[in-house]
């Protein structure tokens, strides 16, 4: 036992234990230990030096749980059942609550059940290991439902899961043992969170043979690794539930100095700059399409402090996640999206694409989206899948203007609810696709509920209040939505040009944490910075919406 903050154990519990497999501790400090090879479960009360038998069992308990009603559960893998007994009754009295004693895959059967979890409604979750699934048994029911596995309502392949834990939102965290990883559920499905290299190993980001997991009060995950005889601690990234980019909270009357500062010109960013990204630390990333690398400016620097280069021949777009991973469209002739992990000097391919990405986005579930203007679709790929595997999430593959079609889509944005916004460029509109839906709704353009003419929009960004900021490229301006409709913010001279208050075919925009707007002014070969006028809002503030675990 390790008290909080201690690096070495301060106590060990012994006493006639023979190969214990599982342990559970209740809120009052009572410690329950499987002593299945001796046919019993033992209990140590807080600070006691001796134990008592609380349950007799016929097999080792691969999983052990005590619910809020003082009922103890034992998962008996070799007999393919989960048994339960009241701690207020006779230790010899137990009953089967899941499984029928024979191995099988029907709804009332289990095959080598291991980890178990009982929720506050006394429903039972079982890591049905050799069936490669997680089974859910509603309280009092013997027929289970597959909630994770290839036969679940949302199919997700597991290999010998050994442990199941629920968080406060009833999202599942699973030790997917033979896939050497930890996976979790969310509102959009399942994804890998630890050991996502697709190979077991001894590196710090790998798991040779994980067995069980547990959370501490800070959200850190502890994993027991069976083959390496070690406990691993994975630190929760406290800002991982927030977006990696700035979303200012701006009043409807917010305005910017119409005369921009040139942040970078063609001597720094090359010709025809398009993609820009600014993270929450105000680090600026710009794709230098001329020289084939990514330029990086740390906050406050006026010259790049780093450039990222690789096997690039036609860079087009980039995105940076909260942990500092950099995703770049490395399309022609490579046809792929590459990722640089934070401070790495080499990249890995995370997604293969059939056309260049004129928009690139990574959502809160680490799903990668690529907007392919040449094929008139948006494709998405899970980080847990094969790099060759992607799904069309918007568009049909043919150009058109109906609700399910796109025409040369460019910039994209995914909100915290995983809804997709698309700059449907040749249709002169912004399309909104509710998560999981293929029929979009026009939210900006002449056919929107509030009609507003756009001409080849190329970029779409949302602020903290979900107002739209749009690069209206052929109109050489930036426009925004507000409670009354739409209005022009910068480049409102009705003519493109190279003066400080003009833009010439701008492509993308990004906010810094102060609310300033950076614009890639493509045909002027520069990056323009429009300063937010703090006095334009009486009670201005900025925030990035917080998420939950």
SSE class: mainly beta
CATH names the topology of the largest domain as: Neuraminidase
User: How many domains, as an integer?
Assistant: 2
CATH superfamily of the largest domain: TolB, C-terminal domain
Instruction: Report low-confidence residues grouped into runs of 5 or more.
Output: 540-549
CATH architecture annotation name of the largest domain = 6 Propeller
Keywords: Repeat
Protein name: NHL repeat containing protein-like protein
GO molecular function: zinc ion binding
Organism: Adineta steineri
What can you see in these coordinates?
- With 549 residues, this protein is mainly β.
- It has two domains: 23-234, TolB, C-terminal domain (Neuraminidase); 255-531, Neuraminidase.
- Strands 1-2-3-4 form a four-stranded antiparallel sheet, with no helix packed on it.
- A hairpin with a 2-residue loop joins strand 39 (477-482) and strand 40 (485-490).
- The longest helix has 4 residues, at 266-269.
- The chain is elongated.
- The protein starts with 22 loop residues before the first strand and ends in a 19-residue tail after the last strand.
- Residues 540-549 have low confidence and may be disordered.
